[in-house]
Amino acid sequence: MTDRIADIHGERTPHPRGTVWPARVDQYLEPGTSAEQVESWVQSACLLCSNGCGVDIAVRDGRMVGVRGRATDVVNHGRLGPKGLYGSTAWASAADRLTRPLVREGGRLVETDWETAMGRVVERSRRLLEDKGPLSHGFYTSGQLFLEEYYALAVIGKAGLGTPHMDGNTRLCTATAAAAFKESFGADGQPGSYTDIEHCDAVFLYGHNMPETQTVLWARILDRTRADDPPKVVCVDPRRTLVALEAERTGGVHLAPRVGTNLALMNGLTRELFVHGWVDEDWVAAHTIGVDDLRSTVEEWTPDKVAEVCGVDADDVRRAARIFGESEHVLSTVLQGFYQSHQATAASVAVHNLHLLRGMIGRPGAGILQMNGQPTAQNNRECGADGDLPGFRNWDNPTHVQQLADAWDVDAMTIPHWAPPTHAMQIFSYAETGSIELLWISATNPAVSMPESARIRRILGGEQCFVVVQDLFLTETAELADVVLPAAGWGEKTGCFTNVNRTVHLSEKAVDPPGEARSDLDILLMYADAMGFATRSGGPLLPWRTPEEVFDAWAAVTAGRPVDYTGLSYAKLRGPTGIPWPVNDAHPDGTDRLYADGVFPTDTDHCETYGHDLATGGTVTETEHRAMDPAGRAFLKGAAYVPPHEEPSEEYPLRYTTGRTVYQFHTRTKTARSRDLDRAAPDAWVEVSAHDAAERGIEEGDWVRVTSPRGMIEVRARVGSVMDGAVFAPFHYGRWEPAGTEHGDAAHRLANELTMTVWDPVSKQPTFKTAACQVTRLRAGDGPAPAPTTAASAPHPDRSAPPSRRARPTEGGAPTTSVVLAETPTYPLDPSGPGREEG
Ligand SMILES: Nc1nc2c(c(=O)[nH]1)N[C@H]1C(S)=C(S)[C@@H](COP(=O)(O)OP(=O)(O)OC[C@H]3O[C@@H](n4cnc5c(=O)[nH]c(N)nc54)[C@H](O)[C@@H]3O)O[C@H]1N2
Ligand SMILES: Nc1nc2c(c(=O)[nH]1)N[C@H]1C(S)=C(S)[C@@H](COP(=O)(O)OP(=O)(O)OC[C@H]3O[C@@H](n4cnc5c(=O)[nH]c(N)nc54)[C@H](O)[C@@H]3O)O[C@H]1N2
Ligand code: SF4
Ligand SMILES: [Mo]
């Protein structure tokens, strides 16, 4: 029995390098339910982060009452983390689920039936199409729907309406991962595999707080770092996270760059590889283009210059580079500390450059994991509900567009491809100015999660745009909508999704949704039917009635593309484990890692994009691309470092950054409805360094006001382990509270009040991780800040707070069970073997 609030990662199962990660089955059943009372276990995968852990859902009396990890799944070998255990099912039977559609009447949202609600949407949509054409419609979707839902939405947008205004919150989340892959390798697609953990000599985590945000993957790393032959850990993060502590333990390095200086650091590390000859010249010559330009781009970035700009120790830069340069097998992971910064794509591509220079790609242990965050972000990118064309097709390539036109039996000119798709930040600007008059938001809560929230509230609440929201709950966003559609959630519908390392899982329906809630697929098909979208030959454009039919249509459309699903079916996915794409005749059991042969999808006729200038976002033309003749070679691309948009000033002397805590997921619609998770991190706080706190007379738990040029929040201070000059705020806390608690005005604790409306020039991902701010003390608190003590938000260790302010250890989760299996079941993909596609 384990309290997985106190013990985030559970019991260690260390094992030697090159051996299979032992299986441990973690299980949680809600209090009052015993294993014997579970009537059925239904196959699924966890939907609370991109790790994609295989789970079975426990069902009793028509309710979801818990989960257990699937021992046979390649992703998690049975393990689950705190969110997966406590947070997967509690929300589903919450009393405040949306059960009926709502429409705005006389300023208020009132309950109605589906016919009325959908009738209003369809009437508005038809009228706008007639009067203003398809560009009056915008769609802002998610990284949390299922593959089948994204594909249906993409077909509606691209072939039914013909609007380029469709994007996902994936723009806030993994747009940079996709952009970085496209720039380096020609197409999206994760090169690495989780099995690289079992083989690596070193693991570099760039702006990635994995112990809190992919807890099971971190448990997998701990089971190597706590063994006798541990890999070295290198942490790049301005906070002293658990990754940083592990870096210290393993003889690695913690590089804490000033917020917003990632690219300067990366240019310095790259330069070290050149200077010390840690470059595999033959491999680089055979498999890449651009090495000379890259060398000159990074030339000025000596360790001393990096130290000056980034505030790190020059010797630490040298040590980290040496670890990279002298290891044979490095695994790199990258996430929001890089993606949500300015120059996001350039910094993330720089990680690829390090691997390419060393020829460290496609081999066991030498992997890149440009992480995703959301569980189904990958599918949004694959299916094109983020604006891309389905199947990683290139909108600048007429042959690719024609392939889709043929598959859908529509005129190629219907499919918007005359310009890049409109990114989310631009969609909101169009909604602000009224050129998008119908904005349909599904499975995302932008009133809390988008930057500069005061502006977002204004846009959603204004008269200039008709807003449709499709959600499980009456969120901060839904409250501002004109029509609210009640959706069925995970476990209440069937569909597939794909995790960070391309592993596809089938998630089966376990229970009925509450009231009149319907699956997102059914809602989209209802709209498509009512609109009468048709093919050229007059048949329905979306002829499907079941998720499986959509899946099969999707699989067919991926034929010949890097993201090849043709060998997958629901039947195959009902087996013991998720399966990583590509799955086709050549790789019937899936593909553990890409690019084992050093051939990349960069050919001009095959690639997903002709690429961009990383500094400006300027596009490379087809002619220029063809002239480079990449022919399967990867691109080495660099960019000069420039400072962030907003630098500290006299008025705002500190650097503001935001992120997550282990116990809450995003805007908390699910995790705050779990008593165990919510109690562990019940309210907002802000982390300041001991030095900055002392300078301002701030003690642990004091109420402080944090201001930026855009707004302010008032929260309690955690005197913590963030680097001097930086301020960290969790972004989870909007208005909504679990029953029995009340927090008043959302704006006063919402981290995004302070963030900026600016984005990376290539990926268009907004910058949540740099702004200038000031922190001032308001008044004494009545105890420690409500921040967890178990991870990066732990109180500063050297500080002797008065007893009344000392943080109590975060603990008290309901008991879970955890059983280490004597023998680990075998998998179709041998985790200790080389990549399947080798040889
Ligand atoms: N518990 C939990 N897990 C989650 C989620 C969640 O909400 N809660 N969400 C999921 C999703 S969608 C995502 S996208 C992932 C995100 O997962 P992560 O990217 O790991 O999480 P963040 O906390 O956003 O940011 C990571 C780290 O970036 C650091 N950072 C801030 N500014 C900078 C900088 O300028 N440079 C560098 N190098 N680092 C910086 C922060 O200190 C932080 O520790 O997590 C997924 N998993
Ligand atoms: N300051 C700051 N802001 C950030 C970030 C940051 O690090 N700092 N991170 C950004 C990132 S990476 C992300 S991913 C976003 C996340 O931001 P959001 O996407 O806004 O966060 P969620 O709370 O996950 O919102 C998902 C919504 O979908 C609903 N939902 C869940 N399942 C279903 C379903 O099956 N159907 C339907 N229709 N609805 C469903 C949930 O109830 C919830 O309201 O936040 C971004 N915002
Ligand atoms: S690591 Fe992610 S996918 Fe796995 S159990 Fe935790 S939240 Fe779920
Ligand atoms: Mo995300």
Written description of the protein model:
The protein is an alpha/beta fold and 839 residues long. The protein has three domains: 102-171 and 376-500 and 516-567, 3-Layer(aba) Sandwich (Rossmann fold); 175-371 and 601-610 and 618-635, 3-Layer(aba) Sandwich (Dimethylsulfoxide Reductase, domain 2), CATH 3.40.228.10; 654-808, Barwin-like endoglucanases (Beta Barrel). 28% of the residues lie in helices and 17% in strands. The chain is built from 26 helices and 29 strands. It has a seven-stranded mixed beta sheet, sandwiched between helices. Strand 3 and strand 4 (54-60) form a beta hairpin. Helix 2 crosses helix 21 (520-531), helix 5 (175-185) packs across helix 15 and helix 9 crosses helix 13 (314-326). It binds ligand MGD (2 copies), iron/sulfur cluster (SF4) and molybdenum atom. Residues 173, 373-374 line the site of molybdenum atom (MO). Residues 46, 48-49, 51-53, 76, 80-81, 83-84, 214-216 line the site of iron/sulfur cluster.
Task: Compose a concise summary of this entry.
This protein has about 850 residues and is an alpha/beta fold.
Nearest-angstrom radius of gyration?
Answer: 25 Å
Mean pLDDT metric: 95
**Molecular shape:** globular
Taking the alpha carbons of the first and last residues, their distance comes to 45 Å
Q: What's the CATH first level of the largest domain?
A: Alpha Beta
Derived from helix and strand composition plus strand pairing, the structural class reads: alpha/beta
Portion of residues in beta strands equals: 15-25%
What does the main sheet amount to? 7 strands, mixed
Fill in the CATH topology of the largest domain: Rossmann fold
